[in-house]
């Protein structure tokens, strides 16, 4: 049990590290866009080789398909709630900070930052729960898999924290948000470990599908458009590089 919590923290701490890097200084838009593009490629590889493929092998296409639909709907709905709350000014919590200016650019950056944070949150919980289930089954954790998680987590957190900082969100709120996301994701590994006896192949497949569905909507709606806007014509090439590295690490694991 202790080891599952430790491995969960090792896998999730990259989110907080990325947030720290994002608030340390103001990063050039092209660099942030390049980081996002690289992370987008890594996430696409994670969806393909870690989530979808693993889900299909453990529970079949029906469970994965149901999980995909639920994950996509949950992310879409949650993201709309966050956006609407921010627009109306009725939410002053961790997922939104109202800026003192009326700059539409600042509002877009804040929305992009919270969307990435929400995506990391909804993806991290099921992904790390599956990690805990695997540990309980005695499958262990490979170094390659941990590196792959780092490669996909860091850009999300860096991009989100950079956008939120540019929109005027205080550093303390950004770091508190990502500390919370990191803690919940780490605890999800322990939850998966404890619930391993109840996790059938179909349930594991649905959990994998849920994470994949949430990620696909986040990639389409937030990460990829922002990466293209900031990195320009290099975004596509960098995305492929991120995909290639993460795919290679996934195959090694």
Describe it:
By secondary structure, the chain is mainly alpha-helical. The chain has one domain. Helix content is 84%, strand content 0%. It is built from eight helices and no strands. α2 packs across α5 and α5 packs antiparallel against α8. The radius of gyration is 17 Å and the shape is globular. About 6% of the residues have low confidence.
Shape: globular
User: Stretches where pLDDT falls below 50 for ≥5 residues?
Assistant: 89-102
**Count of separate DSSP helical elements:** 8
H-E string = HHHHHHHH
Largest sheet: none
For the CA atoms, what is the radius of gyration?
17 Å
Beta-strand content estimate: under 5%
Number of strands: 0
* Average pLDDT, all residues: 81
The number of distinct structural domains comes to: 1
Helix fraction? over 70%
Distance separating the two termini: 22 Å
Q: Which class do the helix and strand fractions yield?
A: mainly alpha
Transmembrane segments: 6-24, 31-52, 58-78, 174-196, 202-219, 231-252
Keywords: Membrane, Transmembrane, Transmembrane helix
Organism: Kocuria marina
Protein name: Membrane protein
